[in-house]
Amino acid sequence: MKILVPIKRVPDPALKTKVKDGAIDLTGANWVVNPFDEYAVETALRLLENGEAGARVAGAEIVVVTIGPEDAAQQLRSALATGADRAIRVDAEDKALDAGVVVAALVQIIAAEKPDLVILGKQAVDGDANQVGQMLAGKLGWAQATFAASVELAADQKSVLVGREVDAGVEYKRIGTPGILTVDLRIVSPHSVKNNVTPATFAYPDGPRYASLKGIMAAKKKPMDVKKLSDYGVTTTPVTREVGIELPAARAAGQIVADIPTLVKKLADEAKAI
Amino acid sequence: MFALDEQTKMVQTMVRQWCETQLAPRIPAFEHGSELPFELMKKMAKTFGLDAMVGAQVRKRIDKLKAAEAGGTTDETSAASLSGSLGGDTMMTHVVVKELSRVSPGFAMGWGVSMGLAGGAILAKGTADQVERWGLPLTTCKQIGSWCLTEPGAGSDAFGSMRTTATVDGDGYVLRGSKTFITNGPGADIFVVYAKIDRGEPPAEQSVATFIVLRDDPGFTVGPPFKKMGMRDSPTSEIFFDDVKLGVERLLGGREKGKAGRSDTKDSLANERSGVPAMAWGIIERCYDASVAYVRDRRQFGRRIGDFQAVQLKIADLYLKLRNVENTVFRLAWMQQSKTQDPAYVNASKAWCSQAAVDAALTAIQIHGGYGYMEELGIEKLARDAKMLELGAGTTDINLLSAARALIGPDGGA
């Protein structure tokens, strides 16, 4: 079985965003793999291994792909270090991309790679657009299961049963392969991914795995193809454009009021909350 | 040469994440002694695949030793390069020690003593059988080790004042005496112990040999954990040998080496000293990072305190210490990699980095004011921990004397 995992680099979400001259200031930004994409890589690894034995299922392959500048190779290598087999970087400046361009490129990559599953993070934490997985399924005409909180690969590998947390509870959807899966944060809970190979009793550590030192050393030697958008015949240009950036207004300081009637009056007249 | 390569940076990021999520939350329990750190050490080794990686190297070493022993020779050549490094990459090892030391110098020390000193000593000097039985579990962190030289009456004068003896008894030995300030003592499975071989000659003429003692050996006992100023997350104790009978298979290397026995110990001492600057690096880097963040954020007299010159001078002082210690570690890694022997540098830099760590931690507390004095920020802990670096692996005074003596050389007479 072959799984393709598109990943995106994002500025470290733990650091404070700086805005300078009407744009986000990315000088000296610390780039990391989008956390949901890390969960997607972890999901792919768990689907294609015996977690208890720590061994990959024979014939299984995980390909990670990113569309971004040369520096983005670091994020691909960190995915290779955790266990992905091969990487593709499509060279492009961040500014030349939007969901439409990314999807156009991924459609071509998928046509060339012919994966059984494409697993993506539900959204990237920089733009929070939450579009690529759904648009990709639409363009390919493939089945999709989004916001997966659990996934079980059928023994015949022809379908996956996906648990999605919805308002009323958990909804289960079975989709056939090839298909598109986007993952939510609970996919990396200890028992969220089942593949009929790892014993059901086996509990993964909570969260995506750490790369082993051996994995980090091996990552350097794993293949990484570098392509251009034009190699895939992508001529699409972004249809979204940035109009302006501003930080949310600072919250006004709280007030201490003397009694409840004053509070009600202020809520009605000033806050317009009631 | 003064930059980490991409792989080492990746290791740094991984270990930092692990420390923040797995190690830092346990520090209060380790500090107050309600929990021992050894299970987490084993878990760490497994998480990062140290067991698999180092295990493969050690098995190769065992095969090589077996082949050499079958041919009636010994293999001394590759021993030095094996001890105290992960995958032969010394800078990567230092970076791991640095990252652990940002959060817990004691955890770094306990791990370093077990894998590097105790495991490294057996790996470098043991027979194939010894490496397989005791070196492998220690270097892969499946078991915990202690390295035992200091005695109640033998600190700086470790060999001259050593009272622990191994009396020859038939084919084996009987161990009598005690050791103190033993890192990992309360939890270790395997103890690498230095003792004088007693055949009735005066103590000054007795040779020193290394023995492997196991926790459940009859006659061997371990005292309760000491109450210490710092390094409280690294349990330390006394250990006692009351007629512990050891077969010759417990004599490291399988034979007595006479006078050369002391130089075996000295190799380990140099390793121990080379490990200290990386711990100082972690302490200083954390103090620097926390201080810079604090002076940007903390406001007094209507502006951030980083705008006051008295504070700026302290930041510059921390920065200078950080970069100097970092440079020292790069140099030590290069020396280890290129097998450059320079005992004066190893000793002098250990002394300097330890002092710098103590100074930096106290400066960081001063910058943080009353908050720095509180347990919650974790900086007062680093100050208490840093002081140990000036005492362990040779006191600063002894380190400096050793450096000076190496520089001046022996008196060749008139």
Concise overview:
With about 270 residues, chain A is α/β, with parallel strands linked by helices.
Q: CATH superfamily membership of chain A, which one?
A: HUPs
In oligomeric terms, what are we looking at? heterodimer
Query: Total number of helical segments of chain B?
Result: 13
Provide the residue-averaged pLDDT of chain A: 93
Number of helices of chain A: 6
Give the fraction of residues assigned to helices of chain B. 40-55%
In total, how many domains does the architecture of chain B comprise?
A: 3
What proportion of the residues of chain A form beta strands (DSSP E)?
Answer: 25-35%
Which pair has the most extensive contact?
A-B, 16 and 18 residues
Task: Report the CATH topology name of the largest domain in chain B.
Answer: Butyryl-CoA Dehydrogenase, subunit A, domain 3
What does this entry look like structurally?
With 274 residues, chain A is an alpha/beta fold. Chain A has one domain: Rossmann fold (3-Layer(aba) Sandwich), CATH 3.40.50. Helix content of chain A is 23%, strand content 28%. Chain A contains six helices and 16 strands. In chain A, strands 1, 8, 9, 10, 11, 12, 13, 14, 15 and 16 form a ten-stranded mixed beta sheet that branches. In chain A, strands 2-5 form a two-stranded antiparallel sheet. A two-stranded antiparallel sheet of chain A has the order 3-4. The longest helix of chain A is centred in the middle third of the chain and has 15 residues. The model of chain A has no long low-confidence stretch (mean pLDDT 93). By secondary structure, chain B is an alpha+beta fold. Chain B folds into three domains: 139 residues, Butyryl-Coa Dehydrogenase, subunit A, domain 1 (Orthogonal Bundle); 94 residues, Butyryl-CoA Dehydrogenase, subunit A, domain 2; 147 residues, Butyryl-CoA Dehydrogenase, subunit A, domain 3 (Up-down Bundle). Chain B has 13 helices and nine strands. In chain B, strands 1, 2, 3, 4, 5, 6 and 7 form a seven-stranded mixed beta sheet that branches. A two-stranded antiparallel sheet of chain B has the order 8-9. In chain B, a hairpin with a 2-residue loop joins strand 2 and strand 3. In chain B, helix 9 runs parallel beside helix 11 and helix 11 packs antiparallel against helix 12. The radius of gyration of chain B is 22 Å and the shape is globular. About 1% of the residues of chain B have low confidence. Chains A and B meet through helix 2 and helix 5 of A and helix 1 and helix 4 of B.
